[in-house]
Amino acid sequence: MNFNFITNRQVSGEILDFEGEKFYKISNVDEMSPFFISVVSSGDHYIFISSTGSLAAGRVRPENALFPYRSVDHIHENAENTGSKTIVRVKNDDYIKLWEPFNKHHEGLYKIQRNIYKNTIGDKIVFEEENHTLGLVFKYSWTSSEHYGFIRESEISNISDINVSLDILDGIQNILPPGAPLSALQTRSALVDAYKVNERVEKSSLALYTMYAKLSDKAEPAESLLATSVFSIDLNRKDNNILISSGQLDEFRRNKSVKEETLTKGVRGSYFVEKSLDLLKNQSKGWMIVADIDKDHRSVQSLKNDIENKSQLFTKIKDSIKSNQYDLIKLMSGADAWQVSDNEVSCIHHYKNVLFNSMRGGIFENSYKSIRLILFLL
Description:
Elements: E1 12-18, E2 21-27, E3 36-39, E4 45-50, E5 55-59, E6 65-67, H1 72-77, E7 83-91, E8 96-99, E9 112-119, E10 125-131, E11 136-145, E12 149-158, E13 164-175, H2 182-187, H3 189-194, E14 196-200, E15 207-211, E16 227-233, E17 241-243, H4 249-253, E18 263-265, E19 269-279, E20 284-295, H5 297-307, H6 310-333, H7 344-361, E21 363-365, E22 370-372
Antiparallel strand pairs: 1-2, 2-9, 3-4, 4-5, 5-6, 7-8, 7-13, 9-10, 10-11, 11-12, 12-20, 13-19, 14-15, 14-18, 15-16, 16-20, 17-19, 21-22
């Protein structure tokens, strides 16, 4: 294999067309100190994400969290155990090579380039690692849907001139159940872990993350009746091995087989899909993980029924993402966010200024007769 290895590790930025949208790309982002990024929504979602990949996310307020709401320093430092995690085993007749995209502890093992893309509208972020030694590219994105919650799309591509066989374990870690008090999460997180129950729904990719009971010392009923839901969609495969904790990651790293998990208790929730892939040269394959909070029994049953038709559900999720973005565009249009000139950077700066001002103060609706608070960020 012959590659033009990147020898220039200089950080650079540019505006470009990417996946049908305008994005700002930072190349060699790992050469920078970790920094914080907000990903916005037309609804009540919040995503605060570190350039390391670790994040805090949820709806409306810190207590309604999908991933723990922490200060920025803790988020930067928890990339290994909170948010996205991917492990790849590249198979050959003579050897197996282990690759963990975005793992800073593996720097120097391969010739790589790490990039971050954020669309100029502000509701989508993409992390990308190009491994020029193995001839592979892995990327994942975060965006949101009013109906389905938080959408993480992953894709692995073969950029080499030979076919590649690989095993991949990909997912998210430190998923929170509803009802975990913010103060307890920040000061007594091990106690909260003891109340956690993670359960895979039979014959489905759906997993539910709940608590035995609300965290309380009072002698009174304290049922916890809501669940965090996570499911995956892979249109290329019928079934994937699914793990609902991080307990077998080291087994996968050691080239051992992992066993599907249907129930774990007293440990932090994770959601991983394991799959074996054969990639032809210049071929890509992708999948989707969808997570949301505060699901009641009726919502869970409805979601379970939807998952039975993967292709239809995939289209619904994509349409919902577009609808969310369209709503954001309409809201920002009402705040006069769009500027047109021959200076594209200036136009984007104007939009961002209006966006963050609107997040703080809302926009006027109904001919300036009322104010609508559009984004519930903290």
